[in-house]
TrEMBL record:
Pfam family, one: Tetraspanin
Topology within the bilayer: Multi-pass membrane protein
Cystine bridges: C154-C187, C155-C171
The keyword Zinc appears for this protein: no
GO cellular component labels: adherens junction; cytoplasm; plasma membrane; pore complex
The protein's name: Tetraspanin
Organism of derivation: Xiphophorus couchianus (Monterrey platyfish)
Keyword Translocase part of the UniProt annotation: no
Residue spans crossing the bilayer: 22-44, 64-85, 91-116, 236-260
InterPro entries: Tetraspanin/Peripherin, Tetraspanin_animals, Tetraspanin_EC2_sf
Family under the similarity heading: Belongs to the tetraspanin (TM4SF) family.
Protein origin, superkingdom: Eukaryota
Length: 282
């Protein structure tokens, strides 16, 4: 009887920890739900716009970026969820490798951005200039630019004159737009303590004025310089945010690799039991 009890307990033994298994599942399930929300918001934002307008600004459309990130996150976390529940080594390895690749890309992007800061600055300038060109084509993009200019107190990419790159604000004399030589309202300096009613036309004709004169009513500095100064002044905070984003990836890699090793040990145990099942002395 003692021998039978020992044999039974040996067969019931498993290397796979239920704590690790379901912890990894719930970890992935949370981000899986987040990815679904991101995709849904991105799809909704795209469908409520006019196709002709959104196609013109596809490269800078926040809705497209949201959908791409959401789909990638969905696929990766799906592998993690199903792989942990089904104890599937292939899916778990796909999940772990994907996290490793993303982590390496983030790390490499940070290092390259620091080393090649001039090229990174040039690329960001191109993105902002492209956004300025398509400012009126996309409501989401317009709101994003307005929010950035208001929060950082800036106007345009390098200077407020960059708004001439937009067909509505172009300062060319042949431009029939009522906003010719103007800048968006988000470029204006707010004097809320003096004005009870905000003048939404404060950016009218500002590109025709000299730098010093325009600086009395609008922010004349470009967003690139302001953004660089903000990054330099908040290096520790941004480093903490980057670390906070990396911690879930590291946790996912650790849990998935731990579960993979446990599953492999369990497979070896099952193969050993199967091999010695006919042994009368087992």
């Amino acid at each position: 009887l003692a021998l039978r009890g020992a044999t039974g307990s040996h067969k019931d033994f498993t290397f796979v920890s239920s704590v690790v298994k379901y912890l990894l599942f719930f970890f992935n399930f949370i981000f899986w739900v987040i990815s679904l929300v991101m995709v849904a918001v991105g799809v909704y934002a795209r469908t409520v716009k006019h196709a002709e307008a959104t196609l013109a600004s596809l490269s800078v459309d926040p809705a497209v970026m949201l959908m791409v990130v959401g789909v990638l996150m969905f696929l990766i976390t799906f592998c993690g969820c199903v792989g942990s529940l089904r104890e599937n080594i292939c899916l778990l390895q796909t999940f772990c490798i994907s996290l490793v690749v993303i982590f390496i890309i983030q790390l490499a992007a940070g290092i390259l951005g620091f080393i090649f800061s001039n090229k990174a600055r040039q690329k960001v300038t191109e993105v902002i200039n492209d956004a300025v060109v398509h400012y009126r084509d996309d409501v989401d993009l317009q709101n994003l630019i307005d929010f950035g200019q208001e929060e950082f107190g800036c106007c345009g990419a390098a200077t407020y004159l960059d708004w001439s790159n937009n067909i509505y604000f172009d300062c060319n004399q042949s431009n029939p737009s009522r906003e010719r030589c103007s800048v968006p309202f988000s470029c204006c300096i707010r004097f809320l303590s003096v004005q009870s009613v905000v003048n939404t036309m404060c950016g009218q004709g500002m590109q025709e004025r000299e730098f010093g004169e325009a600086g009395k009513k609008i922010h004349t500095n470009g967003c690139i310089d302001v953004l660089v100064d903000f990054i330099h002044s908040n290096m520790f905070i941004l480093g903490g945010i980057a670390l906070g984003l990396a911690i879930p990836e590291l946790v996912g890699m650790f849990l998935s690799q731990l579960l993979i090793n446990q599953i492999k040990d369990q497979i070896e145990l099952q193969q050993y039991n199967l091999k010695h099942s006919s042994d009368p002395w087992s």
